[in-house]
Write a structure and sequence with these properties.
By secondary structure, this protein is of the alpha/beta class. It is built from 13 helices and 14 strands. The chain folds into 2 domains: 173 residues, Glycogen Phosphorylase B (Rossmann fold), CATH 3.40.50.2000; 156 residues, 3-Layer(aba) Sandwich (Rossmann fold), CATH 3.40.50. A 6-stranded parallel sheet has the order 2-1-3-4-5-6.
């Protein structure tokens, strides 16, 4: 019997949310692999909004519900957790280790009835198991890919440009990039400095404050461009500086996007940084150190080419065809085990909710 996959998210393009963009890209990859897939973007998680989502999920008869969490659209609501308890599902937890303790505690309901809990890296999986060991046997790791496509025909001929790429919101390292830009401007006055990103919901005041405060840095702000335009800009960039406050890790889609474009990246390191990144990117402990590294990279063509090749090879292992196949294997295993009972609730008939006897 043909079954559908329903990806539940609180945000979806064109809304600025990395996990929302991931969900849309995953849906496209699953469809290309022949799996009927629907994205259910539900952004109202008040009591009435959660009730509406709950009724809609129960109406999905022959369907695997796969929750993507968190997203901007969920806010601080526990509505998605309520739905995951009421309607057996799969859930992908895109972050755990960096979450506030209260946020981590709020994830417990996802671990109670979910048939599978997907984590995006081994580090995140291990962090979850230390807190919630009962979920160990239902955990699976599926890394994320880049939401920005690889531009065909990209060459090593680049502008003398150093860029930041990511959401415009607090705790993304933007202040560090601005400090770095001021240093680079004195060291390399002919270098273009660019910040590419989208303003996160409810962060308009923060974005205005940061942009206004960076006027003496020489940064060109490029906001709210589509993925094809971003791919084009990254393909012409010499170096990216991505000073993640919590360090580079496998869950950083912006890092994978820059690497896929063949851009050597200067970033930060933490316990979350996997070993395989050690020879792919360079690590700086301060904006001053990063500025010196960036200058050297623009002048040392052989080292730039080596890091560009390494970056592209690293990112290409997270291609969406492979990610889709990992999901399909998981879904197939769950379908074979009929005790997972994904067909709870009701079925849709001519657009109306119809109860199904259990």
């Amino acid at each position: 019997m043909t079954y559908r996959v329903l990806l539940l998210t609180g945000s979806a393009p064109p809304e600025p949310c990395g996990i929302g963009a991931y969900t849309a890209t995953l849906a496209n990859a699953l469809e290309k692999a022949g799996q009927p897939t629907e994205v259910m973007c539900h952004s109202s998680w008040s009591l009435s909004g959660t009730s509406a989502a709950f009724r809609r999920l129960l109406a999905q008869r022959d369907c695997i519900v796969h929750v993507q969490y968190p997203t901007m659209g969920y806010g601080y609501s526990l509505g998605p957790q309520v739905c995951a308890i009421a309607r057996k599902c799969v859930v992908t937890l895109h972050e755990f280790s960096i979450a506030h303790r209260l946020r981590q505690l709020s994830l417990v309901p996802f671990t109670l009835r979910s048939a599978r809990v997907v984590m995006t890296s081994n580090f995140e999986r291990d962090a979850l198991v230390r807190w919630m060991p009962w979920v160990r046997e239902r955990l699976i790791v599926i890394p994320i890919g880049s939401n920005i496509p690889e531009l065909s025909g990209a060459t090593e001929e680049r502008c003398k440009r150093i860029a930041y790429f990511g959401l415009i919101m607090p705790r993304k390292g933007l202040e560090t990039f601005i400090e770095f830009a001021r240093i680079v401007r004195t060291m390399m006055p002919d270098c273009e400095l660019m910040a590419i990103g989208m303003i996160a919901p409810r962060q308009e005041e923060y974005a205005k404050r940061v942009i206004d405060g960076s006027r003496d840095s020489g940064i060109k702000w490029v906001i709210d461009r589509n993925s094809e335009e971003v791919a084009e800009m990254l393909s012409q960039t010499s170096v990216c500086y991505l000073p993640f406050p919590d360090g580079a890790s496998e869950r950083r889609g912006s890092l994978k996007a820059a690497c896929l474009a063949g851009v050597p990246c200067i970033t930060t390191r933490s316990l979350r940084t996997p070993r395989e990144l050690m020879d792919v990117v360079t690590f700086a402990n301060s904006p001053q150190e990063a500025a010196t590294m960036a200058k050297n990279l623009t002048e040392q063509r052989e080292e730039w080419s080596r890091l560009s090749r390494k970056a592209r090879a690293y990112a290409q292992q997270f291609d969406w065809q492979t990610i889709a196949q990992s999901h399909l294997r998981m879904y197939a295993e769950l379908r074979e085990n009929r005790s997972n009972a994904f067909s709870l609730g009701a079925q849709m008939s001519d657009g109306n909710v119809k109860r199904v006897a259990q």
